[in-house]
Amino acid sequence: MRIGEIARRSGVSVRALRYYEEQGLLVPGRSPGGQREYTEDAVQRVRAIQQLYAAGLPSRRVAELLPCMDTDTTTDHQRAMLRAERDRIRAQIDELTATLARLDELVDAADRRG
Amino acid sequence: MRIGEIARRSGVSVRALRYYEEQGLLVPGRSPGGQREYTEDAVQRVRAIQQLYAAGLPSRRVAELLPCMDTDTTTDHQRAMLRAERDRIRAQIDELTATLARLDELVDAADRRG
DNA sequence: CTAAAACCTCACGTAGACGTGAGGTGCAAG
DNA sequence: CTTGCACCTCACGTCTACGTGAGGTTTTAG
Asked: Looking at residue A55, what is its pLDDT?
């Protein structure tokens, strides 16, 4: 598939896909004419990338983590990083939960006032 | 208190505090000589600002939400926004929870392999 | 009164994930 | 063979929450 269709299917922009290649996150093949050729699973990979971005990871981390999802082998470094990022996300969830509680209080207080 | 002490107590930089003033999030008084004079509760307010920033809200939203935490009155607009941001944060927590599960799987798989 | 902190106001620099043309090429249709 | 859309490669622009001097003033310690 070409870049336009992947963009439509995955919901990201063409520019974003080129950026992912530049960052080494999703490197497609090339047609004889030089156009990018993506395989089917590229869409899944894009979703994974977006999910990790949404968790606050920078491209470098995503580039280091994606191989762990592809292959079934992990180096010590990768395992340490997996744990670190997992812990970071846990802390992030805890903080968001606290913020949510705070906003809930405000909403409830407003509702009680009419 | 002056800006340096607030910075130390709240853990943010002096520059950040000036920025908060510029954004209308935390506007201190001024000494006769023109220096910023903060009250005690400024530290709490800084923490609230940081918490909202951490939840992904931009300055504009924070500026709109902070009054809800100060006064006990809310406009319709404020209440709608409170709900909207609350829902956004809920969704964010859900997505992070999914990401966490995914990373947990990877960590567990790596652990099982030795 | 003086020196040194600590503060002040511009105002440009930064990082990250793209947006947005500019100018040129590949490819399927007619 | 030519239109025309989708694609290509630079390469500068954008937005946010500050970082980082430059150059000058206020406050405090001695």
From this structure: 96
